[in-house]
Design brief:
Elements lengths: L2 E4 L12 E8 L5 E7 L2 E6 L3 H13 L11 H18 L4
Parallel strand pairs: 1-4
Antiparallel strand pairs: 2-3, 3-4
Length: 95
């Protein structure tokens, strides 16, 4: 079973190769969140306020994907996360 970790102030130590996918969705309270899925965990980044978005930005930057990470709007941010997910797919070795 995959565990869920809600990311607060502590930045998770997850390498690019561990991440299966990134996505954005609304949680049970319909608040925006980003999820980073690994084989063992779902890292959930709430995106309801500036501090949470800043945390998620730092995580995305830590992946070193060569993308300018910034928040303008939720629709722009969803596209940015999708772009990062696509770039992660290209980083993975072929099985």
């Amino acid at each position: 079973m995959i565990g869920q970790i809600f990311v607060g102030m502590e930045m998770p130590e997850v390498s690019v190769t561990e991440i299966r996918s990134l996505g954005i969705w609304g949680n049970v309270d319909n608040e925006p969140c980003m999820i980073a899925e690994t084989e063992a965990e779902y890292y959930i980044f709430p995106l309801s306020n500036g501090f949470q978005i800043h945390n998620c930005n730092n995580f995305l930057r830590s992946l070193g994907l060569g993308v300018a990470i910034h928040f303008e709007s939720y629709s722009q941010y969803a596209g940015l996360i999708a772009r990062c997910d696509s770039l992660l797919e290209n980083e993975k070795p072929l099985a």
